[in-house]
């Protein structure tokens, strides 16, 4: 399958080493000259993913959907709903459903203050959506920064009005109920269930099969003990 070849390509040692080298260069500019960094990634081809845009067979794409022509790969039997926006550097597997109004690959929310001015950081990464994923209405998934990917695992379901921050990793068979907010670089395991209107802080980790109740604010990593019981990384009980 075309998407399997793409997944193997972006994880190959040659591509990985090249991306690491680029990432280190970009981190240098990011640290010492943010404006130079933003210029390089937004106005030049200094950092490109090199994906050849392609679309598989049996896909149903609504005529109002907007799909970037450059660096978007889509597998087979996908359904893309009304007013969906798919930005560049997005890889979509097979049998993926993206419902009305969702935005895939939006710019991450990250700024630095330079001489009293808030300067946005241009993101160079992308989004990977694996096979059999369902993304609900008005979901927003930010692309990652510095050439990496925000990633949604096989057979996961992201419900309506959920926001996934830049660089987030979600495992297989995980469900996020409506209104969930996930901070950047959070690492969510497989078969995790997150209740509606919950919020996850940046850069935390949820182990496989963790259950998060409705309307919960999670501020630290969670390890699963048994059943629905959860433990914070540093102490018992929900953070």
UniProtKB/TrEMBL annotation:
Sorted UniProt keywords: Acyltransferase, Lipid A biosynthesis, Lipid biosynthesis, Lipid metabolism, Transferase
Mannose-1-phosphate guanyltransferase C-terminal domain span: 125-226
Segments forming a coiled coil: none
Phylogenetic classification of the source organism: Archaea, Methanobacteriati, Methanobacteriota, Stenosarchaea group, Methanomicrobia
Species of the source: Methanoregula boonei (strain DSM 21154 / JCM 14090 / 6A8)
GO MF term set: N-acyltransferase activity
Biological process per Gene Ontology, one example term: lipid A biosynthetic process
Protein name from the UniProt record: UDP-3-O-(3-hydroxymyristoyl) glucosamine N-acyltransferase
InterPro entries: GMPPB_C, Hexapep, LpxD, Trimer_LpxA-like_sf
PANTHER family attached to this UniProt entry: UDP-3-O-ACYLGLUCOSAMINE N-ACYLTRANSFERASE (PTHR43378), UDP-3-O-ACYLGLUCOSAMINE N-ACYLTRANSFERASE 1, MITOCHONDRIAL-RELATED (PTHR43378:SF2)
């Amino acid at each position: 399958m075309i998407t399997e070849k793409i997944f193997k390509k972006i994880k190959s040692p040659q591509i990985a080493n090249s991306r690491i080298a680029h990432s280190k260069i970009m981190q240098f500019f990011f640290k010492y000259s943010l404006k130079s960094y933003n210029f390089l990634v937004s106005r030049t081809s200094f950092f490109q993913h090199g994906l050849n845009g392609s679309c598989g067979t049996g896909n149903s794409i609504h005529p109002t959907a907007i799909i970037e022509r450059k660096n978007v790969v889509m597998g087979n039997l996908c359904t893309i709903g009304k007013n969906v926006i798919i930005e560049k550097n997005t890889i979509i597997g097979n049998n993926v459903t993206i419902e009305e109004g969702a935005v895939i690959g939006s710019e991450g929310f990250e700024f630095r203050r330079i001489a009293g001015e808030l300067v946005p950081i241009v993101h160079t990464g992308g989004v990977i959506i694996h096979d059999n994923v369902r993304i609900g209405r008005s979901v927003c998934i930010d692309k990652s920064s510095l050439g990496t990917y925000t990633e949604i695992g096989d057979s996961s379901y992201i419900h309506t009005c959920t926001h996934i921050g830049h660089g987030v990793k979600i495992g297989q068979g995980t469900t996020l109920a409506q209104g969930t907010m996930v901070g950047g670089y959070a690492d969510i395991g497989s078969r995790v269930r997150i209740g509606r209107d919950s919020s996850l802080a940046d850069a935390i980790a949820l182990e496989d099969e963790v259950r998060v109740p409705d309307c919960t604010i999670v501020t630290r990593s969670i390890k699963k003990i048994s059943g629905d019981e959860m433990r914070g990384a540093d102490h018992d009980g929900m953070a």
